[in-house]
Amino acid sequence: MPATKTLQQREEELRSLLATDVGRQQIEDMALRYRLASDRLMPAGTSAVTYILVHERAQGLISG
User: Fold this and answer.
1) Range of the domain at 35
2) How confident is the prediction along the chain (64 residues), in pLDDT tens digits per residue?
3) Which DSSP letter does residue 61 get?
4) Do the beta carbons of residue 34 and residue 1 sit within 8 Å?
């Protein structure tokens, strides 16, 4: 993700990936990379999309 996007834009991008098996795997892979990078567990009941959004927002990749 090269440029800062709004929360709504990024959420729409991630949710569109959920429409395919390949996209779902990409979401899971991204969530795993972020968990390893932050050394923080994903809270129980949290979706991978939400975890990604929180991580990217904390890193300044998402505005708003």
Assistant:
1) 5-63
2) 457 899 999 999 999 999 999 999 999 999 999 999 998 888 999 999 999 999 999 999 998 7
3) -
4) no
Task: Write the CA distances from 19 to 3, 22, 24, 30, integer angstroms.
Answer: 24, 9, 7, 16
- The structural domain count of the chain equals 1
Predicted structure pTM score = 0.88
Q: Please answer whether residues 49 and 10 qualify as being in contact, where contact means their C-beta atoms are separated by less than 8 angstroms.
A: no
Structure tokens at 6: 């709004």
Angle between helices 7-17 and 21-38 (to 10 degrees): 130
